[in-house]
Please model this.
Amino acid sequence: MGIYVIRVPDIGEGIAEVELVAWHVALGESVKEDQPVADVMTDKASVEIPCHVHGKVIALGAAVGQMISVGAELIRLEVEGEGNLKDDAAPAASAATATQIAAAPEEKSKQSDTKASENIAIPAVQAPKQASAPAARPAARAPVAQARKEGERPLAAPSVRRRALDMGVDLRLVHGSGPAGQISHADLEAFAAGQGPVVGGNPQYVERHGEEVIPVIGLRRKIAQKMQEAKRRIPHFSYVEEVDVTELEQLRQQLNKIHGATRGKLTLLPFLARAMVLALRQFPQINARYDDDAGVVTRYEAVHLGIAAQTDGGLMVPVLRHAESLDLWASAAGIARVAEGAKTGKLGREELTGSTITLTSLGALGGIVSTPVINHPEVAIVGVNRMVERPMLKNGQVVARQLMNLSSSFDHRVVDGMDAAQFIQAIRALLETPALLFVD
Model:
């Protein structure tokens, strides 16, 4: 038998370290060649690390949430044959560290809340429990609780009270089987297993004291860093305008009725994308990226449209490249494809970077007004609020109209307020007279 070490690969683009965001294997588990063993995240994307050989996992080199240098030991396998350890340049200390992380005793996970919070950034990676673990107690309803007098304090030892606090259990709801109704650890466990009945009160009104400490890692950490950087660096200027989209909505419904079955249904987003493309021809300074470290603004002829997309992991901004070259249906298909790809994690690097301006919409949850954060280093973001039907005075008559707000933000270092307002007014004019969307 030999030892085979898999190291963090060089992902390119000058990246020196990555964040470990997920393990797909555990200690003692057998793995096959090409089987994914871990996910790491760079500033640009999540990358899956495959296994190179068949073997058995004997050490994990890091815990989820840790930053790992390129070339550092990621995982250690026991393999048939000699392996690659004798040719590996890793110092012995690296192996010791990996073993220490992997073999952390289970008792460490039972430290006090204070101790756990101090070490939350690097949680222990534990070996899987052996089959000799205690058998689960048979499922049973908790003992029926006896009503206590109003305001009567339950009898329980300090250790039981402390444990109930950790479990988020109100002792007033637990039946005590001991002398004078004293609550034991067994009573507490029985209540937790069976969710025993309420003693003298409605459970939705009792005090609750549970806490959950959640490490900010992976995509959530990247989102936090990007938002903080954008708000710290960019002096945001926000502008909100109401748009009458009654005719646009009628056109959309007509197109869907005629072409929906063969070309796909259109949402409002491809119309907005088209309006932005046309308006940017008049305001090229808004289709730009600002390198504030170098003091350089780069304007682009191509419109690489960022589409803010909500995923299970958090906010992502996939890119619809060359939106200026797409008709409504191609734009609709492209927006749907990159949004779905962001949710499933199946987009390439080119579709996750390089946007020149961003479009964001929460659909029916869009609210009335929002102040979207610019996707740094871009200089503008156009936000779409929800569409509502409201009475409006038109030609001396009160009529029902479909109205929607555009809430947009601009980098005031690069985009003047007048230019921002005129840009949004240009978009408004195109949306309120949708025939203009088809005139170059």
